Amino acid sequence: MDAKRLLELILLFVLHFQGNSGRDLFLNKRSGQDAVLSCTSESSSPPTCSIVEWFYYKDGGQAITEVRNGEVIESSARAARLSVTTDCSLVINNVTAEDAGLYFCRQGGDTNTDVNTYLSVLTISPSQPGADPNRDDDITLKCSLFKVRDVPCRENNIRWVDETGAELLGEGDGYRVLPQTACVSFLTVKRQSGRNRKYTCQFVDEQNSVKIEADYTLDPPPNQIYIIIGGVVGAVVVLVVIAGLIIYRKRANVTEDFPKPTQHPDEPESNLTYVTVNHANQQASTGKKVKEEKVMYCTVKCQKTEANEDPSNLYSNVRNLK
After folding, report:
1. DSSP designation for 220
2. H or E element: which one contains 232?
3. Is 122 exposed, middle or buried (0-12, 13-18, 19+ CB in 10 A)?
4. Are residues 177 and 233 both part of a single domain?
5. Are strands 82-84 and 52-57 parallel, antiparallel or unpaired?
6. Residues with Cβ < 8 Å from 78, sequence gap 6 or more?
7. Domain of residue 277, residue span
8. How far apart are CA 104 and CA 23, in angstroms?
9. pTM higher than 0.85, yes or no?
10. What pLDDT, in 10s, does the model give residues 300-316?
11. Is 89 exposed, middle or buried (0-12, 13-18, 19+ CB in 10 A)?
12. Which of 62, 94, 120 is the last residue of a domain?
């Protein structure tokens, strides 16, 4: 590293860790959100984007130039997730724990224009991601606040609440909160539950105001999931069977309403056609009672042969039904 580059890094370190009054901004995001870092503060003038630069500094590292002359540097490892708005703000998409750190905006190389933004990122996940999901034992959730060392993290900065909003303290029914260490807190809960349970990790300030929070939904054990699915499938099958029986009964009732005419015992079973005809005077007066007669008409078709195709082989019989 040449002397000029080393001098620049030393200057940046001294400048930003002594703090600029009125130009320090604090931004809290949870993993997966988008962050918008402003290039202005209450004591700064509107910037000119064509001369704006954005720098990023993380504990134990060195300042990295992310934006030069208002344009994202393509060689940046995060170039695909970075962009600059019309007011020169820096946008970071899909924030991760690695994005936590100090960002500062500078105009035209003038350090007096610097605006510092301290980005902290809150994450929540199982402390042992590779644990066997088929086991019914307890699971421990880990909540961490990633930040720079200059951002304090006092005791009880991180707290846990359940799905009802009640704060979880110490040890209770089905849970145990471990003492907070630095900016990390652990919650151990039981997985033996018949439904999903949601737990929320919150980062609060000195006045206990929530600055950022992250949720984690704990699924029931797989064996209980199968029981639930089996119950739902069983209920659907029962409903389908009941519906089928109802349809069958209705069709059976319709069939019974139209009985087949009684066949004469001396007549052959096949090739018989029966028709019942009601004879009534359609022109009779509506006030006069009309006598109705029912007549059964029967046609018998003889077996057709090559030698006899005479249509007179049809035998008709008309009977008056008394």
Report:
1. P
2. helix 222-256
3. buried
4. no
5. unpaired
6. 66, 92, 99
7. 264-281+292-322
8. 10
9. no
10. 454 555 545 555 554 55
11. buried
12. 120
